[in-house]
Amino acid sequence: MSKFPYLKQDFLASIVVFLVAVPLCVGVAVASGVPAELGLITGIVGGLVTGLMRGSSLQVSGPAAGLTVLVFEAVSEFGVATLGVIVLFAGLLQLAMGFLGIGRWFRAISVSVVEGMLCGIGLVIIAGQIYAAAGLKAPESGLGKIAGLPGAFTDALGSTSALASLAIGAGTIAVIVLWKKLPKAVQTVPGALAAVVLATVATLAFSLPVATVQVEGLLGVIQPPGAEAFGELASPAIWGTIIAFALIASAESLFSAAAVDRLHDGPRTEYNKEMIAQGAGNTLCGLLGALPMTAVIVRSSANVSAGAKTKASRVLHGVWLLLFAAAMPWALALIPVPALAGILVHAGWKLIPFRQISALWRAHKGEALILVATAVSIVAVNMFEGVLIGLALSVVKTAWEASHIRLEIIDKGAGPIQAYLSGNATFLRLPKILDSLESLPQDRPVELDLKGLHHLDHACRTALENWAERHSATGTEPVKVTEPEAPAEAEKVTAS
């Protein structure tokens, strides 16, 4: 027993995580447009493979709601048969990034871009799953999903089966929300699992005309990618999707790791090793033709709050998922699809960072605008390009702030005009600098003091040289320049 001092705590925590994972694994798979069992396979790999590896000891990996939109887009464009190749190469890319030590650099990504990504994903999930809850086909684009909602509700009102389906979905959300208000003893059963069980019982008891999960059997859905799928790699379009899978899955996993570290006092995450663990898991998921995995904050926080002490809890949760998928596949066929849609609507709602948006707006309006722009871009364009737009805006904002410059002009009416430049002189602020300098009287000598500059880039240096030549060309005394004190950062400016 001394070899496993926390076996009891880890065993009990593994049961809780398993119960949380089952409805989410199945729901994410169905929402991604693939067989339900593929979600369970990814959960099993997340437990048995990634769970055994070093990195973050208490976070749990599996299929994530955050990748649902991206997977659905990939399956729609390339087909389920090619999904394995995409996930396989995304995993190999993660392994490479882990071995090259790139994992820790993900911590440098702007929080507003990450929150914006989650917000955009949440909006698309909610809009798409409302159609699934009503048993209707959702439009393909994010904007189409949102714009089509009024029409979808109108269609649902005229259909008994759609109304029954919507009632199951709405009831599932209500149970999940109200479950948290029940006594702690009752809450040992996860709300999502209770909601699915109640929805299943209601559907069977009242013989409701509601779609249920299609079951193909665990071995029946495992499809290692074939030669035709590997042939898709010749298409440049698929590489954009592979890179998107790798980057977004990595960012989600490593941000989850940082969040989980704040929940416990145990060993801290080793980011590069966690990246390698995620890459190994995704490589295997790709070989099995399953969904991509990330670390999932819902399961991870459930693991910590249930008292887990070591990685044994997440490995055991993978064992329970394997036993469930092998021994009770018939149970999946009883689950109503709108109940899974309800779970994902609730998960999507939790991805929208309402508090963070209001807090950012009060303290950093620029960051709040980047968050909103990232979310809107994901809804309007797609996941990958939306995140790239957010990252680009974040870089531009940082560069703009880093190029803060102050120009002070002192004119005593007689003698030379004194101009003092301080801060960072970069090309972004060049128009402002030149406008001020060119407005100085042409017939007066000028003393330009650059000692206050921390940085003077090549574009500014060249522009100041040209201005000094022009100002001196009319017969006025040459512009007298006092050089910056940091020789490594700035080059000499001359009036020549």
TrEMBL record:
Spans annotated as Disordered: 471-496
Q: Where in the cell is it found?
A: Membrane
**Could you tell me which Pfam families the record lists for this protein?**
Sulfate_transp (PF00916)
User: In terms of one coarse class, where is the protein primarily found?
Assistant: membrane
Positions of the SLC26A/SulP transporter domain: 7-374
Q: What are the UniProt keywords, alphabetically?
A: Membrane, Transmembrane, Transmembrane helix
Recorded topology in the membrane: Multi-pass membrane protein
> Does the keyword section mention Transmembrane?
yes
InterPro entries noted in UniProt: SLC26A/SulP_dom, SLC26A/SulP_fam
TM segment ranges: 12-31, 78-102, 114-136, 156-179, 191-213, 233-255, 276-298, 318-347, 368-396
Q: What protein name is recorded for this chain?
A: SulP family inorganic anion transporter
Q: Which organism is it from?
A: Streptomyces venetus
Q: Taxonomically, what lineage is the organism?
A: Bacteria, Bacillati, Actinomycetota, Actinomycetes, Kitasatosporales
